[in-house]
Amino acid sequence: MKDNVCRIIKINKEALFEFIYENFINQEEELLDLDTKLGISNHFDINWETGEFIFLAHSSEDAEENIIPFPKDIDIKKVMNRLPETTDSVLNSTKKFKELTFDELRSLSNG
After folding, report:
1. H or E segment at 81?
2. I need a labelling partner for 13 at 20 to 30 A (CA). Which of 19, 52, 65, 97 fits?
């Protein structure tokens, strides 16, 4: 790059959301201690007012290869509002995630 020159990227909220989500997808093995060779489904949301982001991953198939859908009665926004932060940084080396069952998520969602 030449001296006294800046390369700039400016994006809107939608592009920022996409960037955050795609980075979580690219790093989900490390962040969530997963083997993504197995079927994994992802779900996510962001609260622009509070600056919070939630990313969930679960097995997409059971042992008999039946699809495991994410339950429609679980509201991810409500879970995000009621779940405490699971880590202060995704860059630290400690465990970053909390493991909850669909029933536990449903309880948080229905609060």
Report:
1. helix 76-82
2. 97
